[in-house]
TrEMBL record:
Family: Belongs to the LysR transcriptional regulatory family.
All copies of domain HTH lysR-type, residue ranges: 6-63
Keywords: DNA-binding, Transcription, Transcription regulation
Species per Swiss-Prot/TrEMBL record: Acerihabitans sp. KWT182
Protein name: LysR family transcriptional regulator
InterPro entries found in the cross-reference section: LysR-type_TF_proteobact-type, LysR_HTH_N, LysR_subst-bd, WH-like_DNA-bd_sf, WH_DNA-bd_sf
Length: 305
């Protein structure tokens, strides 16, 4: 007879595999090997008598039965975790916090902030998903997600943490080769590197409400790639100031049109609506608010410390 423990192990392995997209991703969250996770899911399928996942060498997809089962059991696992979380105290929280952050936020800000939080609460662990993809917070099992810019309507709670300005910049080598733009209109005659959202180039936007979609040699959905391409002299970028504050200070990038009013965007932290946040995630959200109060991301001109 299958024990309750074995049933729970298979259930957790299945839900975490779906949420993380692979056995390897689930293994990092669970703390077991990918092969152990795979075997747990296989035993669950054998016990249920149905195939829940279609496996290939590269991907894992839910079957119709698997999708129905996931929709039924994922909330049960979440409820169990929330019940356990209520027993934790704010003095010594423990457990995993899953956070999705944009690439530039992850590399420039979040790494140091997560490290500071762990020093304060050493029994907490992080799963940081650093991506410019808009993740499905609920389906993929995230506690929190940071977003830059105007938010679409969704079934998520949003807390505004602060603002960041977007500035134009290019490398000294590019500007010596092509010249310094003196107006927004001049950008149409330059190579402009573009950030892609849902496969479309995001406009260069300004404080007066105007925007342009200039041409350029590189489009990418990765903010860090955009920054590095600009440093290498490929063209002009519009990017959050905090992401290139260190480059501006070092002279590897030069700000363009510094007196022209640039777009200022809000930064929000999101979490699922109607769901009780774990104590550890709630404390980290408060910690993020503290960090944003200490930083002026709109006027930042030096590397964050």
């Amino acid at each position: 007879m299958t024990t309750i423990m074995e049933k729970t192990t298979g259930l957790v392995a299945f839900v975490r595999t779906v949420q993380n997209g692979s056995f390897a991703g689930a293994s990092r969250v669970i703390g077991a090997s990918p092969s152990a996770v795979s075997k747990s899911v296989a035993r669950l399928e054998e016990r249920l008598g149905v195939r829940l996942l279609q496996r290939s060498t590269r991907t894992i997809r839910l079957t119709l039965e698997g999708a129905d089962y996931f929709e039924r059991v994922a909330p049960l696992l979440q409820a169990l975790e929330e019940a356990e979380n209520q027993l934790q105290t704010t003095e010594m929280p423990q457990g995993l916090i899953r956070v999705s952050v944009p690439v530039l936020v992850g590399r420039v800000l979040m790494a140091q902030w997560a490290a500071k939080f762990i020093l304060r609460y050493p029994r907490v662990k992080f799963d940081l998903d650093v991506t410019d993809r808009n993740v499905d917070i609920i389906r993929e099992g995230f506690d929190l997600a940071l977003r830059i810019g105007t938010l679409p309507d969704s079934g998520l709670n949003a807390r505004m943490l602060g603002n960041t300005s977007h500035i134009l910049a290019a490398s000294p080598t590019y500007l010596s080769r092509r010249g310094m733009p003196l107006s927004v209109g001049d950008l149409q005659h330059h190579d402009c590197l573009r950030f892609l959202i849902a496969g479309r180039p995001f406009p260069y936007a300004f404080a007066d409400g105007g925007s342009i979609v200039p041409e350029g040699p590189i489009d990418t959905s990765d903010g860090a790639t955009l920054r590095q391409a600009a440093i290498e002299g490929a063209g002009i970028i519009q990017i959050p100031r905090f992401a290139i504050a260190e480059d501006i200070a070092a002279g590897t990038l030069i700000q363009i049109l510094p007196t022209f009013p640039m777009l200022i965007s809000p930064i929000h932290v999101l979490h699922p609506f109607g769901r009780q946040l774990p104590v550890r995630a709630r404390l980290f959200m408060e910690f993020l608010a503290e960090q944003f109060q200490e930083k002026n991301l709109v006027e930042m001109t030096a590397p964050p410390r």
